[in-house]
Amino acid sequence: MVSAQGSQEINYDSDRTLKNEERYPGALILSKVDNQVYFDHDGIEVWCDNAVFYKEANFFKAYGNIRMKQGDSVSMTSNYAEYNGNTEFAFASGNVSMKRPQTTLETDSLFFDRVKQQAYYRSGGKVTDTASVLTSKIGRYFMEEDKYSFINEVVVTNPEYTINSEQLDFYSETGHAYLYGPSTIKSETSTVYCERGFYDTRADNGYFIKNSQINYDNRILRGDSLYFNRENSFASATNNIRVIDTINDSRVTGHYAEVYRDKDSVFITKKAVAASLQERDTLFIHSDTIMITGKPEKRVIRGFYDVRIFKEDETGENPMSGRSDSIYSDQQTGLTKLINLNRDGGNRNPVLWSNENQMTGDSIHLMSNTKTEQLDSLLVFNNAFLIQKDSIEGYNQIKGKKLTGYFQDNELNEVIIDKNTETLHYMRNNDSELIGINKTLASSIRILFRDREIQDIYYYNQIDGKLTPEADFPPNARELKGFNWRGEERILNKEGLFEGQPEPELIKIKGIPLPDEPDEFFDKREKDDLLLNENSRLKPDILKNRNADSLRFKNEKVMDSLKPGTQQDSLRKDIQKLEKEKAVSRKKD
């Protein structure tokens, strides 16, 4: 055992020690007989089959079956390695494998700075974790943080998914990954996209910000912040969210949403709006909370608390709107129900406006043609009441137990009211002069519309009816019992869906900060102060930082010198030659 003086000098042990001043001036040639060559320097140990040791320079080159160990946490194997004891800087090449408790790094060439406790490759590398395999062209490992920083064509492969990213920081102890730049997480059932995100590769969940979205088979979820749990097939979104149904041409917006993929359900609140494209029209449903359930061909929309709907055609001339306590809409059957649940005993009877016609009742059903997606008919159950504002003054009114309406081109064309019907109608001539007010009782009534106005009224089993001049009709009798004109509630445009409602208070999104810019890996040094000794196989230009870090260590001048085994074979021949020379010398003696 030969021990150098001073803690900064390299200790070594070798079964065989030779010199060849002609080829290796100032160096010792060390080789294995029974035991491998051994080096020790301030906590790092190296074993190899052969080595060239420049003792004065405190530098060695190692060949064959190399093992390098630092404490109990880092071990590395390679075909070739160099180490400078003065700068504590190492280089390894040829089947390099560096193992940590949680990960294994494999690459063809690796730099290791013991002062910084950082390892670095730029010729492509692979890290195997307990759950995933990570590859990139460029990688840097920070030992004190137990963190890998990957850039350039980063790929994480897991049995359940694949991550592609421009840059990814990975903490091997926890399996946490931070994604920067355009990144995707793809699996058989979903694709996540973000430009900044966090993912727990072992628990299979994460959250994403900046242009983030989750694509399921038939839904796209977007928002300022997304949370994703693969095991539970669950995702949630916060602030400025959109859930797009790619099959049914519909979308839901709001500021908080939950999506359960396996249950085919969406829950959304905070200014929630469901918009469904129906041929050339769009139906908007707004309520405090919206739930969408069912397979694509059997979607059901439910809305709760202060439901508001609005529909207009492309001309904007045939608006329809309504309000109710809750709503149920089945896209398969085309049935939409406006319902009063009377949760607090108050009067929330649903109301529907078709052009100038207001209809109310205990519940209202709308039927759409599932092929054309146009309105077909409507039903108003119990306490049906139709009110139309007269063109000049007063209100035309029709009431009964049940109302049936029929649409043509999405416009109310005919209404039939059955059981205990009663009408109050302002009769006018062709010049719009008021003839009188007609109040009639009948068993049923049929009303026809033209140009959105009542054109004809037919009475069946009329019990009583009388046309009274306006002057003789008392003002206090011009409203039927139960009359309730709610014109101030009418929704005239999309913005009216939110009228009178406060803006929701949005949650402050917890961001994902960009990583700190690390110091350059290769320190700038004086010309004669080299990271690796002048006897290194590496050229000084290689030990420089590059903007693109595109060097693959497999090009022109470097390629041959880094081929595994090339210099080791040459060294072995030199050792064999020296052994023969020493044997001849002993015989002469």
Automatic annotation (TrEMBL):
Pfam hit, one: OstA_2
Lineage top rank: taxon: Bacteria
Coiled coil (residue ranges): none
Protein name as catalogued: OstA-like protein
Region (Disordered): 555-589
Biased composition (Basic and acidic residues): 570-589
Domain (Organic solvent tolerance-like N-terminal) ranges: 32-166
